[in-house]
Amino acid sequence: MDGEELTEQETALYDRQIRVWGANAQRRLTKSHILVSGIKGTVTEFCKNIVLAGVGSVTLMDDRLVTEEALNANFLIPPDESAYRGKTVAEICCDSLKDFNPMVFVSVEKGDLSTRDTEFFETFDVVVIGYGSRSTKKAVNEKCRKLSKRVAFYTVDCRDSCGEIFVDLQDYKYTKKNLEETVECELNFPSFQEAISVPWKLTPRRTVKLYFAMRVIEAFEESEGRKPGACSLLDLATVLEIKKKLCEANSVSESHVPDSLLERLVTGNTEFPPACAIVGGILAQEVIKAVSGKGDPLKNFFYFDAQDGKGVMEDISNSLTS
Amino acid sequence: MDTQQQQSAIKGAKVLMVGAGGIGCELLKTLALSGFEDIHIIDMDTIEVSNLNRQFLFRRSHVGQSKAKVARDAVLRFRPHINIRSYHANVKNPEFDVDFFKQFDVVLNGLDNLDARRHVNRLCLAADVPLVESGTTGFLGQVTVHVKGKTECYECQTKPAPKTYPVCTITSTPTKFVHCIVWAKDLLFAKLFGDKNQENDLNVRSHNAASSSKEKEDVFERAEDEDIEQYGRKIYDHVFGSNIENALANEETWKNRRRPRPIYSKEVLPESLTQQNGSAQNCSVTGGDSVISAMPSLGLKNPQELWGLTQNSLVFIEALKLFFAKRKKEIGHLTFDKDDQLAVEFVTAAANIRAESFGIPLHSLFEAKGIAGNIVHAVATTNAIIAGLIVIEAIKVLKKDANKYRMTYCLEHPSRKMLLMPVEPFEPNPSCYVCSKTPLVLEINTQKSKLRDLVDRIVTAKLGMNLPLIMHGASLLYEVGDDLDDIMVANYNANLEKYLAELPSPIVNGSSLTVEDLQQELSCKINVKHREEFDEEKEPEGMVLSGWTQPPATNGESASTSNNENAVDVTESSSGSEIATKKRRLSETQPENHKKETQNVESDDDDFMEIENPMLVSKKKKRVE
Ligand SMILES: [Zn+2]
């Protein structure tokens, strides 16, 4: 037992979940601080889940003004223009989230995530990027890794009816129940940079196509200076060229990344709410595991595609010995 | 996404949701966000504090209100222009008949009990409306699709029945804590605070000392002016002291068992408790809700703390006193409710004292509550994921994408890299009595079983019928309904008390019964086989119903073990949070008249999908590592 006991009120409210993960895990949850940047449908789902779970605090970053587009797949924004006019996505979501669980401290942080210095991240236990460029993801991940305390780092991205989660828990020790006894386990995670730099030939056999497709889209957005998700069918030709180059550079055939999949990702700009619920659910579950130090974490990518219905975990680490 | 066609299918769909709880809240939200515009939702429950950690459409201020209604209002706030209709009612009510179900394009279940699930399954079959069924417990969940004639119905595979215990284990020889809980809840609590006229085994079997039977009857009666504490001590001494002592007198029972220890109140408690906590402050304040509780006045705060014998005894007396002092009006018609704090305290204390007496480890209030209330372990994330999967299947059903239907398992540990594992649905089971009208076989002692036993233990409990009717040949033996005249009712009631073989149209070995439920439009045949003896431990009901699932082949192992299919079944049902692993051989889904010699059937591998049991797979892996 560490820390103070849960209050009577907490025990009553969290009764059903304490039966799942225990009072110790609940205590750790109530003391954890989560930073979330970029609030679209999947992240909305994620926020709802961790606020209900009873984390200590959630800090929201998203300075985009609320527009029609932001309403898609988002149940935190009432579609009443007079209510959201002039407000940022983070501000309006903050108001709604507070309401879900008065015991969680929800606040808004203004400004650009990529310009924050390393110390900023020290106040958090978990950082989630829901909407960010490849360079932002890399930079924030590196800053988290420089800190003496371990900050769990996640990215999530949903396009069309697909989703991707990336996880970096650095050197991670945890416990898990193995039949009757509890065993200590340890895992080493690669950084975002290291993970996406693994030569395609060295990725595990039958790695899901989505992994490669997402790397192509990422490269496209970076080379064209696009905001995440800002592309359309008109960009498909350029995307296919980039795919060709990447396949050549990795000495794999072009069939490695199906054109039809890239087309889906390029055109599917509106999120598919069921996929958001699923990916946001898995992400929240992973954050709860990491904070409580209980259960096998996801290492280090997760993919969901509503078309085949599979939710797949991929371990893509830079193993030179392969 | 082929958006155009999909969006119009979604927009034009009329959807029925059954259940506005953990899965229901998530489902209603995801349906609305996905563009559904005509949603009907049925739920009989009202909101409780312990719902708020996952049923995110509800707030503390809504406690006590209808779930269906509050969920509707909450979703309309972010999607104001859609049509949501809520029904604060039991889905088993007669108004939700086959015609009601026929108006929908798809039915989505987010239910928490087996009974209602079976009922909805039957109505969907009768109305020929596709059903998407779901369940969660902890990090596990599943979504299945049931389309008449195309995929198996919800009842094609037998579901694990709620656990029942032999009566004597509960009344005289408990060996596990759960036995003590059942005793405290179903016998003692019911005897003290429930319907006094209900039959109760509390005295009957615990002793052979016939002399005292009259006196025992009186123990539970409280004289109007009797001091409550004295009364409580009397009950205490009776059930934990003299009853045990009486039971000990029967040496036969304890030959191979550990002997229990009688416990009397004077050994554990001081002479009088009143001065100890004279200024009893009995209302604990939990977020504004005032709850009557025995804990605060005894200085007990933490429900996860283990109480010793003395503390349990104090809680026992104190809770009993509070029932009589503060809730006197309810006494006589209380039933145990896991959300009734005082009831949980009383049952925990009573179960622990009994456990102490029988040398069984004691449990905290938190744990005892979980066991007593069959509490389902639930988290928001799994419900959200499952709701997303339900909507994906619902859309396929609306687009009639039959070859894309999947049942999906949500796993805690990945199996073959998958956390979400889609599997092709099974074909209907040709020997399913619900969707294929295959006769059932009932083994029963026709001379010693009454029609009432058949109705209670088979027709209601096993067949899950709501408004049953029983026919034998042309003779109507029993029916339920509001349109019956007094003579018929009297007639049926008389029949209930008759032994099967003595009914106006005697049911004997070889008889064939027709049992129908008009609301569910389900009819099934039962062939009766007379049997003299039943094993009290293994067959506590005194009758055995079989037929709709093939018993696992005992000598068919050689046929091909690889064809065994294992699937995980997870249900947020009262029957349990356990995962049942079951085997079913599709090669045996043939008419039941095949005999042993014809059992070397060549299996047609095309009918198979290989699914490995994810649990087994992960265990295997661990062993290899
Ligand atoms: Zn069936």
TrEMBL record, chain A:
Entry keyword annotation includes Ligase: yes
Domain of life: Eukaryota
Metabolic or biological pathway, per its Swiss-Prot or TrEMBL entry: Protein modification; protein sumoylation
UniProt cross-references to Pfam families, sorted A to Z: ThiF
Entry GO CC: cytoplasm; SUMO activating enzyme complex
UniProt subcellular location: Nucleus
Alphabetized UniProt keyword annotations: Acetylation, Ligase, Nucleus, Ubl conjugation pathway
Molecular function via GO: SUMO activating enzyme activity
Domain THIF-type NAD/FAD binding fold span(s) in chain numbering: 14-307
GO biological-process terms attached to the record: protein sumoylation
Subunit and interaction comment: Heterodimer of SAE1A or SAE1B and SAE2. The complex binds SUMO proteins via SAE2.
Family designation: Belongs to the ubiquitin-activating E1 family.
PANTHER family on file: SUMO-ACTIVATING ENZYME SUBUNIT 1, UBIQUITIN-ACTIVATING ENZYME E1
Protein name: Ubiquitin-like 1-activating enzyme E1A
UniProtKB/TrEMBL annotation, chain B:
Residue span of region Disordered: 531-625
Gene3D superfamilies: Ubiquitin activating enzymes (Uba3). Chain: B, domain 2, Ubiquitin-activating enzyme E1, inactive adenylation domain, subdomain 1, Ubiquitin-like 2 activating enzyme e1b. Chain: B, domain 3
Record: active site: 168
Pathway noted in the entry: Protein modification; protein sumoylation
UniProt keyword annotation of Nucleotide-binding present: yes
THIF-type NAD/FAD binding fold domain location: 5-433
Gene Ontology CC annotation, any one: cytoplasm
Protein's cellular compartments: Nucleus
Listed GO biological process terms: protein sumoylation
Top-level taxon of origin: Eukaryota
GO molecular function: ATP binding; metal ion binding; SUMO activating enzyme activity; transferase activity
Stored Pfam families: ThiF (PF00899), UAE_UbL (PF14732), UBA_E1_SCCH (PF10585)
Domain called Ubiquitin-activating enzyme SCCH: residue spans: 328-369
Keywords on record: ATP-binding, Metal-binding, Nucleotide-binding, Nucleus, Transferase, Ubl conjugation pathway, Zinc
Binding of ATP, residues: 19-24, 43, 51-54, 67, 112-117
Binding site for Zn(2+): 153, 156, 432, 435
Acetylation as UniProt keyword: no
Assembly information from the UniProt record: Heterodimer.
Family: Belongs to the ubiquitin-activating E1 family.
PANTHER family hit by this protein: SUMO-ACTIVATING ENZYME SUBUNIT 2 (PTHR10953:SF5), UBIQUITIN-ACTIVATING ENZYME E1 (PTHR10953)
Name this protein carries in UniProt: SUMO-activating enzyme subunit
